[in-house]
Write a sequence for this structure.
């Protein structure tokens, strides 16, 4: 029967070539909290005292370690992650929510003075549902829709909405056929974190991202890297309220090109930096008639 301290040392030894010591600690304690149902602060104080009650829990730790050594992101191993205070189930069919996307949600909420407004909101390329669910949690009177092309992604987003006790209407459809999308609604807010990484940028990425996360949710062709933003604009010109706003996550390497594209259709387009100092978000409003 091994103590948690011994298991942690095993993780440090086995994963040191793949992760920094800080990352290993984050992964280990996230798994330990999940498997043992004990708060992280208590775990840290009791590493030598806490021992496996049975072999099953040790097998869980070993199985997770094997998957991590294979390069599988720990969020997939765990099966969930926390996004803007919401537990979001994740698997290979959806992207793992990123802190930058939390900043996009925060920007939207900061712009809304009255959280009890009855807003109509659309989340394009909704994936796991993390954006729409976080908004639904914080805007309880609003009606929120989400679309995604992936049936398996939508199955998971539905589970996430139930898990977080919110109501989001998810629709399976392809944003690249935006002109055929008819929800019979005008939206106050349209938000999207679409695919935007050029295939040529793949060589600069962490292998764990493109090897295990769904490539169709990550990459666009080098020849037409703004394809999804063009469709977001088409959808918005038909479905955005006159005083509505668009919030999107963007490729930092294409920030100027993306802003220029939106300026052809909207009089106000704001680029915003993330906490790392990169231009990763755009807000657009006041459509040009």
């Amino acid at each position: 029967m091994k103590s948690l301290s011994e298991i942690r040392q095993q993780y440090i030894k086995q994963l040191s070539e793949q992760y920094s010591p800080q990352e290993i600690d984050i992964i280990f304690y996230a798994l330990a909290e999940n498997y043992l149902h004990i708060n992280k602060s208590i775990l840290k104080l009791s590493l030598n005292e806490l021992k496996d009650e049975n072999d099953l829990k040790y097998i869980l730790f070993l199985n997770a370690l094997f998957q991590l050594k294979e390069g599988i992101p720990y969020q997939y191993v765990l099966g969930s992650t926390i996004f803007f205070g919401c537990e979001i189930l994740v698997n290979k069919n959806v992207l793992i929510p990123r802190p930058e996307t939390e900043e996009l949600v925060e920007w939207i909420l900061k712009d809304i003075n009255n959280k009890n407004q009855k807003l109509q909101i659309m989340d394009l390329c909704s994936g796991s549902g993390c954006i729409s669910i976080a908004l639904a949690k914080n805007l309880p009177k609003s009606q929120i829709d989400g679309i995604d092309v992936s049936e398996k992604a939508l199955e998971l987003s539905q589970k996430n909405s139930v898990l977080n006790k919110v109501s989001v209407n998810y629709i399976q459809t392809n944003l690249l056929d935006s002109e055929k999308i008819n929800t019979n609604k005008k939206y106050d807010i349209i938000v999207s974190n679409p695919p935007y990484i050029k295939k040529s940028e793949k060589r600069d990425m962490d292998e764990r991202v493109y090897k295990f996360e769904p490539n169709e949710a990550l990459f666009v062709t080098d020849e037409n890297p703004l394809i999804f933003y063009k469709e977001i604009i088409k959808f918005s010109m038909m479905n955005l309220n006159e005083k509505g706003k668009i919030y999107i996550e963007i490729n930092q390497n294409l920030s100027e090109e993306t802003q220029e594209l939106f300026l052809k259709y909207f009089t106000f387009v704001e680029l915003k930096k993330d906490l790392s100092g990169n231009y990763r978000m755009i807000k657009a409003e006041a459509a040009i008639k």
User: Anything to note?
Assistant: The chain has eleven helices and eleven strands. The two ends are 71 Å apart (CA to CA).
